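DM from R.C. (forwarded with permission)

"hey, sorry to bug you on a friday — could you get me a structure for this? deadline for the figure draft is monday and I only need the backbone to look sensible"
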Amino acid sequence: MLSPAETVRRLGGLATGTQLQKLGFSRRALSRSVARGEMDRIRNGVFAENGIDRDVHMAVAHGGALTCVSVLRRLGVWILSDSTVPHVWLGPDRHSHPHPGCVCVSHFYRGTPPLGRASLETALIHLRTCQGDEAFFAAFESAWRKGLLSQSARERIRVDLPQSARWLVAIARADADSGLESLLRLRCHLIGIRLECQVRIPEIGRVVFVLAGCLILETDGKENHDGTVRRHRDLMRDAIASRLGYETLRFDYAQVVYDWPIVQDAIIAALRRAQR
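My reply, with the result:
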């Protein structure tokens, strides 16, 4: 017969005392396994294998499941928020459990949290409630680009959103290279500016956005445009674009996220010049 610790490991690293007792382990056997250091009792009635993910451990200790930015970041999804503390789904009627070092953000959202962490779809829904439309839209497009969202998954998310937010799924695309692109396109959409996305131009290659047939918009995430070589490449592209009759506006992370009014004014002014 497997030991309690081995059983917990085979169950995915987490198990309730009720589960383990149904498999034939007595409370005394579970207590002995914890006392020998073979597994961990996170809180009453919940056991974990040793070395479980720290934030999952904290979420379970808090009384719920890891969700929102905490799940999405682990999946490599682009996140607007800098939050690194565990976001925990507790359900609508549950309360948090005090635990050492608690910095958890509690989400009292509808439904019953699973043991451990929420699904990607649930985490995206929770992200919108927690951090708003822009954060959701950028994360949704990022997850889609990474191949994490099937057509049926996207439809389930659309249905789970409030009626007033379903348009976000309707305008989402699968080709955004970064969350900055998603944010810029969403914000332009809200002020009535239509963008051509991921356009290939001879001698230049692919550019992020084109407006009015002659205005190029580029977003420079730090991870993609840092360094002398990459900066030189960007300047060469801009010079060739100018020779071909294009004006290029290039914005970095800080401008798009923190100085949007300036970015918006620059785009509108350049668009007016192009239309003249």
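R.C.: lifesaver. The chain has 14 helices and ten strands.
me: no worries. The CA atoms of residues 195 and 211 lie 5 Å apart.
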